[in-house]
Specification:
By secondary structure, the protein is mainly alpha-helical. 53% of the residues lie in helices and 11% in strands. β1, α5 and β2 form a beta-alpha-beta unit.
């Protein structure tokens, strides 16, 4: 069960519904869809209330404060990407399997142990994994 799914669904509903009445109908449709997908009602309510807490909405949602919340969410914008310095970052990719589970922690421990006083220590290693190709992934991809 993903925590951000009900949260994001409600944010989207607030952004897309231009009136409070359509929002109320859409919220009930979302709640029903989540219940049909085996999300507990208490969990749904908690995530919906998290939306209002995050945007400092203390009183119950009404027509007047719905419009201000909607405008706030629409014009809030998305998280801007931070500039990335590729000169000071080294990307290391490896194929993931169960015995490679501890590789990132061991790699960083060895990196800090042996390169602590070296000029290369200013370079930040970023480990990325690739999945092992198997028949199931191949068949799903080609479907």
């Amino acid at each position: 069960m993903k925590i951000n799914i009900p949260y994001t669904m409600l944010i989207r509903a607030i952004k897309y519904c231009s009136t409070f009445e359509t929002y109320v109908k859409e919220r009930e449709k979302l709640r029903m869809a989540l219940l049909l997908n085996k999300y507990p009602g208490e969990f749904i309510e908690k995530q919906f209330s998290r939306v209002f807490q995050k945007h400092n909405l203390i009183e119950p949602l009404s027509t007047s404060n719905y419009i201000t919340l909607r405008e706030k969410l629409i014009y809030l914008g998305t998280n801007e990407k931070m500039p990335f310095d590729y000169r000071s970052t080294m990307f290391i990719h490896f194929t993931y399997c169960l015995n490679m589970k501890t590789l990132p922690a061991k790699f960083h421990a060895l990196w800090n142990k042996y390169f602590i006083e070296s000029p290369i220590h200013e370079t930040k290693p970023v480990l990325g994994t690739r999945n092992v190709k198997n028949l199931q992934q191949h068949l799903v991809h080609n479907k």
